[in-house]
Amino acid sequence: MTAVLVIEDDARIRLAMVLALEDEGYDTHGVATAEEGLRWQRTTPADNVLVDLMLPGMDGFECIRQLRRDDDVPIVVISARDDTHDIVAALEAGADDYVVKPVAIKELSARLRALRRRGRATQVSAQVFGDLEISPEAGEVRRAGRPVPVTRTEFRLLCELAEHAGKVLSRQQLLQRVWGYDTGDERLVDVHVGRVRQKIEPDPTNPRHLVTLRGLGYKLQR
């Protein structure tokens, strides 16, 4: 049975989520603080972690960073905050997805299943785009010979684009291939593309490799 840890300080919301996820067949445990969540995950590791951002004491952003330092567990942010800055900050901290409250449990359950199904990035040979090198087998991205620190999802995004180098992939195609979602918030793709550009492009405002085709999507070009 898939185990889910819910880190949510609102007792009513926490209980409702735990009960709803248990009805969906998950072994679910809820805690009220980041500190409790970190202790639980270190001793009784869950398969997925749901994190609220507005937590007492340590906030959700720092909780995500510490979870990510410990393991590669899929992390989904559950928050009433819908500001793009918060979404960017949470994803950069290491979250895999961001769901805005109120949460539709059926949709959340489908996303959790998709995150658990994701394997390693597609195993294509290393590809070079100018001074950028993407090596799926080695799990590395290098620019001018130096390692580029990317999150797991950013790496999968780059590998997917590299596998289809020169071809345009729509946001929906990327949601399906990188996240495993049939539908979802396309901002998830836009935010990750923006973060990747900051890391791989000399001038992110005028990208050479990861380019936008307005109304169509994104492509990685040499």
UniProtKB/TrEMBL annotation:
The feature table lists the DNA-binding region at: 124-222
Q: Which SUPFAM superfamilies match?
A: CheY-like
Where the record annotates domain Response regulatory, the positions are 3-116
Q: Which InterPro entries match?
A: CheY-like_superfamily, OmpR/PhoB-type_DNA-bd, Sig_transdc_resp-reg_receiver, WalR-like, WH-like_DNA-bd_sf
Among the GO biological process terms of this entry, one is:
regulation of DNA-templated transcription
Tell whether NAD is among the UniProt keywords: no
Report the residues modified as 4-aspartylphosphate: 52
Gene Ontology CC, one term: cytosol
Note the superkingdom of the native organism: Bacteria
Q: Which UniProt keywords apply?
A: DNA-binding, Phosphoprotein, Transcription, Transcription regulation, Two-component regulatory system
Name the SMART domains on file. REC, Trans_reg_C
- The chain positions of domain OmpR/PhoB-type read 124-222
Zinc among keywords: no
GO molecular-function term, one example from the UniProt record: phosphorelay response regulator activity
Q: Which PANTHER family match?
A: DNA-BINDING DUAL MASTER TRANSCRIPTIONAL REGULATOR RPAA, REGULATOR OF RPOS
Can you name this protein? DNA-binding response regulator, OmpR family, contains REC and winged-helix (WHTH) domain
- Organism, as annotated: Micromonospora krabiensis
What does the record give as the organism's lineage? Bacteria, Bacillati, Actinomycetota, Actinomycetes, Micromonosporales
